[in-house]
């Protein structure tokens, strides 16, 4: 019981299917600011727009249409496009094959982009999501959580199909830290309150939060233990993320959960 409640607040990358990872964002190399990649993903397909510079130093762009190769990496053709001068009536475009490009995730936030243009060498760059402006998470939400609790000292405490519903209050200090208070209301976990708190790291459309998680209520010991929130981000109606934590009396269980919540309309 105690373990499954706590699980409520944890969610880990391991709980998410590889094909569910979503990389839509702007990517760049902080040491080489001025060029980058726009990426939009649809399921296992990605459209890339690479904005770089030609041998004459003038702005140049290429596009790639790439697909998951079955290993979580994306590869495909790179194209050059020329078209109508923007100040003239539209007369169409010409698309010319230019080479190949791949996008290989290192983690949710970083990747390696490798491309060849017109047979000229191979460019291999490490890029990361580019942060634009802070997001505001503070508010009152209603949501649910699912995932798994494994590795418990007491095997009966394992719960490979955890489910829970909660009210969620988020407070935030600028772009630096946040606190998430999950108050469970489903029959199994009613009365359990779990508080996740810690500093924020902002990378593009996503945040990381490395901090502590403490749960009180039936079967909980209230001890704050290390936890990590990954892929924390706003959605069209609220927020979502994944939590990973070690919990239970003496820290005897490992939990990974995906949480999602909608902003209450009376906020």
Describe, in plain words, how this protein is organized in 3D.
- The chain has one helix at residues 2-7, and strands at 25-28, 36-42, 45-53, 59-68, 74-83, 93-105, 110-117, 120-129, 139-150, 159-173, 177-184, 193-203, 206-216, 225-234, 238-247, 253-263.
- It is built from one helix and 16 strands.
- By secondary structure, it is mainly β.
- The radius of gyration is 22 Å and the shape is elongated.
- It starts with a helix and ends with a strand.
- Strands 1-2-3-4-5-6-7-8 form an eight-stranded antiparallel beta barrel. Strands 9-10-11-12-13-14-15-16 form an eight-stranded antiparallel beta barrel.
- It folds into two domains: 2-18 and 133-263, Beta Barrel (Porin); 19-129.
- The model is unreliable at 1-19 (pLDDT under 50).
Order of helices and strands: HEEEEEEEEEEEEEEEE
Oligomer: single chain
Mean pLDDT: 89
Largest sheet: 8 strands, antiparallel, barrel
The figure for the number of domains is: 2
User: CATH class of the largest domain, please?
Assistant: Mainly Beta
Distance, first to last CA: 32 Å
Please estimate the helix content: under 10%
What structural class is derived from the secondary structure elements? mainly beta
Query: What is the 3D form?
Result: elongated
Number of separate strands: 16
Annotated CATH architecture of the largest domain: Beta Barrel
Cα-atom radius of gyration: 22 Å
Query: Which fold name corresponds to the CATH topology of the largest domain?
Result: Porin
Amount of beta strand = over 45%
Number of helices: 1
Name the poorly predicted regions.
1-19
């Amino acid at each position: 019981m105690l373990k499954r409640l706590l699980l409520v607040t944890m969610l880990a990358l391991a709980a998410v299917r590889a094909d569910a990872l979503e990389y839509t964002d702007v990517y760049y190399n902080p040491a080489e600011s001025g060029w980058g990649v726009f990426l939009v993903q649809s399921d296992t397909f990605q459209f890339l727009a690479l904005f770089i510079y030609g041998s004459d130093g003038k702005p140049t762009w290429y596009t790639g249409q790439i697909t998951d190769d079955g290993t979580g990496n994306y590869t495909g053709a790179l194209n050059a496009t020329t078209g109508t001068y923007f100040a003239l009536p539209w007369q169409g475009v010409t698309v010319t094959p230019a080479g190949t490009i791949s996008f290989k995730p290192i983690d949710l936030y970083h990747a390696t982009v490798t491309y060849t243009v017109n047979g000229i060498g191979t460019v291999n760059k490490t890029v990361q999501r580019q942060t634009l402006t802070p997001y505001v998470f503070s508010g009152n939400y209603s949501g649910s959580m699912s995932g798994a609790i494994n590795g418990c000292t007491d095997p009966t405490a394992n719960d490979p199909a955890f489910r829970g519903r909660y009210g969620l209050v988020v407070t935030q200090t600028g772009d630096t830290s946040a606190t998430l208070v999950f108050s469970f209301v489903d029959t199994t976990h009613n009365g359990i309150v779990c508080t996740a708190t810690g500093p924020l790291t902002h990378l593009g459309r996503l945040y990381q939060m490395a901090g502590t998680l403490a749960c009180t209520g039936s079967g909980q010991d209230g001890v704050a233990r290390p936890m990590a929130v990954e892929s924390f981000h706003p959605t069209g109606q609220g927020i979502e993320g994944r939590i990973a934590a070690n919990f239970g009396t003496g820290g005897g269980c490992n939990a990974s959960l995906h949480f999602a919540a909608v902003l209450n309309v009376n906020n």
